[in-house]
Design brief:
The protein has about 525 residues and is of the alpha/beta class. Helices cover about 40% and strands about 15% of the residues. The chain has 17 helices and 17 strands. The chain has a ten-stranded mixed beta sheet with strand order 8-17-16-15-14-13-12-9-10-11, with helices on both faces. Helix 8 packs across helix 14 and helix 14 packs across helix 16.
Length: about 525
């Protein structure tokens, strides 16, 4: 699924209207009716007070359509026009008059003294500002948004929360409505996927309003939201006459005294992701642990308690390095020598990233399409500070392009940065915020590359399956009891789900569940 800018969505609207030979008002009626149907299906006529706040543009027009349908179905609804400008869109005026013709006159709000009483048990429908907003709300409109936020009422935002900029950082965080749920037209907005907006974006789902899909594809959008239907084609089916050598040899390098578990998790993850062979290169102190815990993994050893020499003998297809490795001086020197001499594909995590950040000259020695899997603090050590999350993404794209890397930016919606493209992941939940989760992810991605997946596809598929394990597990266990080993336990289920055709709707596939950092 593409994540489109406001300009691209406007172009898709115009093309759809032209190709279907319909009016913009008819497209609005269709989109807003779908929103009403979503709400009606859940409320089933309950006598709950519903407040519909409408701006004077097309988002306000959507709100007026919803209010009209609510009135027609007997709901206890009050509709308000937030009169922040004398300009009105044609579609707004059309639907304003339709309400009046029914005898339902919306209340016009032009001052904070005119704010209606909103109670905690009510519902607010937010249709004040839409997707194309480029100036923060001011005056009484900002105060109205703050008033609604203060009530802590459940708020359903139409397309996007009022005051939230879709494609750039919102300059006034005090003028953004905190949405309880969002019905987003056709595609998610980039702002929904970034942690700086977590206070304003709780849960959301997509309402497919039927925009021209061929035109959307022709836009060649650079931002993607990866769903099951996007990931399934990446999977490589196995041939009957294959053997363990067909699926590559993964070498996992890492560990130090007290942190052998990180290498254990990564090694086991590479195996369970399908790597034909796996060898772990670790300090001597970890030898009995690895050999006992994972008999399927071969082991080579370095110095007693930390890595020093990096003199492995394994003929590997790919190397995953860094987890639990530490950054002591001898390890740093050995790592530098390794990076300068290595020619194999790499996946670098944790202390490997930290050592690169300390010695950025090493970045120029990395093989093309090396995968780096930083969490936010590790990324900051690589890139330096950023002004906001949009700036972070731009810096990440520049960094990845400069050094020909694949960046896996771990977060609630983990983003894969490849060249000038962004692939945001759709799976996962707060259960993944647990020690060792990142080590497992590194092992999965490395194991996929061993089998012949490209670095980009390995990252996209690996991140998706990693998140899916938590989505499946949460049906059986709470967030708190889920640990990194459970990712490995549920990885088979995630594979099976990927390979199973189902009839889930797009709305169900794209519903977000307020995830936390992984």
């Amino acid at each position: 699924m593409f994540v489109l800018s406001p300009k691209q969505i406007a172009e898709a609207d115009k093309t759809t209207i032209k190709n279907l030979n319909i009016s913009s008002d008819e497209l609005m009626e269709h989109a807003a009716t779908l929103c009403f149907q979503w709400l009606h299906k859940r409320l089933q006529g309950q006598n709950i007070k519903i407040h519909v706040f409408c701006g004077i543009g097309n988002n306000g027009g959507d709100g007026l359509v919803i209010a009209r349908h609510l009135h027609n179905h007997g709901y206890n609804v009050s509709c308000y026009v937030v009169n922040f400008s004398h300009k009105r869109s044609d579609e707004f005026l059309t639907n304003y008059h339709r309400l009046k013709e029914m005898g339902e006159w919306p209340t016009v709000i032009s001052h904070e003294k005119e704010f209606p009483e909103v109670n905690f048990e009510d519902i607010v429908i937010d249709a004040i500002f839409g997707n194309g907003l480029n100036r923060p709300p001011t005056g009484f409109t900002k105060k109205l948004i703050q008033y609604i936020n203060s009530t802590k009422v459940f708020t359903l935002a139409i397309d996007t929360p009022s005051g939230l900029f879709s494609n750039s950082s919102s300059p006034d965080k005090e003028a953004i409505l905190k949405a309880g749920h969002i019905l987003s037209f056709q595609c998610p907005k980039l702002a929904f996927l970034l942690p700086e907006n977590k206070k304003f974006v709780n849960t959301w789902e997509i309402i497919d309003i039927g925009l021209d899909q061929e035109f959307i594809k022709s836009l060649n959008a650079k931002v993607h939201f990866t769903l099951k239907q996007d990931v399934s084609p990446l999977y490589k089916h196995r041939a009957k006459w294959s053997h363990k050598g067909t699926y590559g040899h993964t070498l996992i390098i890492g560990g130090s005294f007290g942190k052998i578990g990180a290498t254990l998790l990564a090694s086991k993850a590479a195996l369970k992701a399908g790597s034909g062979l796996v060898t772990a290169y670790i300090p001597k102190c970890g030898y009995p642990i690895l050999q006992t815990a994972i008999p399927e993994v071969m082991v080579e050893v370095d110095d007693d308690t930390f890595l020093n020499y990096f003199n492995y003998k394994t003929h590997a297809s790919v190397i995953g390095i860094g987890m639990g490795m530490g950054t002591v001086e001898k390890t740093a020197l050995g790592f530098e020598k390794f990076i300068k001499e290595n020619k194999l594909p790499l996946v670098i995590d944790a202390d490997g990233i930290n050592l690169l950040a300390k010695n950025k000259d090493l970045l120029s020695f990395l093989p093309k399409d090396t995968v780096l899997t930083p969490h936010p603090k590790e990324l900051e050590r690589l890139l330096g500070t950023w002004e906001n999350d949009f700036d972070k993404l731009e810096k990440a794209k520049q960094f990845a392009s400069k050094y020909h890397l694949v960046l896996v930016l771990k977060d609630a919606h983990t983003a894969i940065v490849y060249k000038n493209q962004l692939f945001f992941n759709s799976t996962g939940n707060p259960a993944l915020a647990t020690a060792g989760s990142g080590d497992v992810l590194t092992g999965i991605i490395t194991g996929f590359i061993a089998q012949g997946y490209t670095a980009k596809d390995a990252a996209i598929l690996g991140v998706y399956l990693h998140g899916k394990t938590a989505d499946i597990a949460i049906r059986e266990m709470g967030h708190e009891t889920f640990i990194a080993s459970n990712i490995l336990d549920f990885l088979p289920d995630a594979f099976l789900d990927l390979l199973t055709e189902d009839d889930e709707s797009t709305n169900e596939d794209t519903e977000d569940t307020d995830t936390s950092s992984k």
